[in-house]
Amino acid sequence: MRVRLTTAVASAAALTLLTGCGAADMTKQSSPFANAQGAKTVTLSVQSWVGAQSNVAVAQYLLEHELGYRVDTVQVDEVPAWDALSQGRVDAILEDWGHPEQEQRYVEDKKTIAPGGDLGVTGHIGWFVPTYFAKKHPDVTNWKNLNKYADLLRTAESGGKGQLLDGSPSYVTNDKALVKNLNLDYQVVFAGSEAAQITQMQQFAKEKKPFLSYWYTPQWLMEKVPMTEVKLPPYEEGCDADPAKVDCAYPVTPLQKYLNADFAKDGGDAAEFLKNFTWTTEDQNEVSLMIAEKKMRPQVAAEKWVDSHKSVWKKWLP
Question: Tens of pLDDT along 255-278?
Fold first, then answer.
């Protein structure tokens, strides 16, 4: 999830940085290289958050420099990416935060998508406040006390209510239902992207202002802006089955890879490599930090990581 980042202040340059690797908008075009039978080409779906960018950057670098493939990348929102993968317009999604409806439709029923295994990173979506605010008001970390702080968390965009800052509406989010079903005096405000959400939270932190935000781990920003999670009602299996009635926390999600079924079967070394691709939260955050904070191009960050982690990626090669 997410995931998966109030002002749509993030500059176009920042957004371009976070959606690097030569990604294109999949809603407008598709790659001519996807599902190319017998050709040494691979097309990877790039999600809009920086952790997903890091997966693709490293996979692309190794596919090109170690296995001799031509790699193309296209940017697709989370749900449309499943359609593109099923149709063979992309060959692989390297970070999925859980889409049970799509899994049932494409993996179980149509069998046009094949599981690619664990990414090795465990994701968790939740609500977070900056730790400096939690230390001053410890009870804010329980959802039952959030209405007490609604006035402090009000912004010009939240319409007289407390602001719950979300990223992109395309991310996995139950927040509107949670606010309604838990009777919270808050308004969900979408920043528009991960980059815009990060910009907003960094500005709040710089001014030591309180904020409440939908956020997720792993994510490099936690190292720069320490945050504390607000405890929502415990997650139980099935508590989020009806999107309109969700009143529980988000689950902990082992992030998954998925391959086009034909590519999984006939994709040769590239398919085997992507199935083998697993790394840790620390690995991903290391690359993400270089891309987002140090402003490196994704392929430069990937090369730097590859150069210093040979013992990790050598195991992925066929």
Answer: 999 999 999 999 999 999 999 999
As given in the structure block, the two tokens for residue 235 are 């997650």
pTM metric for this prediction: 0.74
Written as six digits, the tokens of 48 are 């809009």
14-40 tens-digit pLDDT: 333 333 333 333 444 455 555 555 569
The more confidently predicted of residues 198 and 11 is: 198
Could you give the CA distance from residue 219 to residue 214 in angstroms, rounded to a whole number? 12
Contact between residue 4 and residue 99 where contact means Cβ atoms under 8 Å apart: no
- Chain position carrying tokens 């902990």: 252
pLDDT of residue 72: 97
Task: Write the DSSP string, 109-170.
Answer: IS--EEEEEEEEEEEEEEEEEEHHHHHHSGGGGBGGGGGGGTTTTB-TTTTTSEEEEE--TT
Determine the residue type at 69: Y
* Lookup: tokens for 105: 């439709």
Distance CA 154, CA 156 (A): 7
Q: Indicate the pairing of strand 41-46 with strand 70-75.
A: parallel
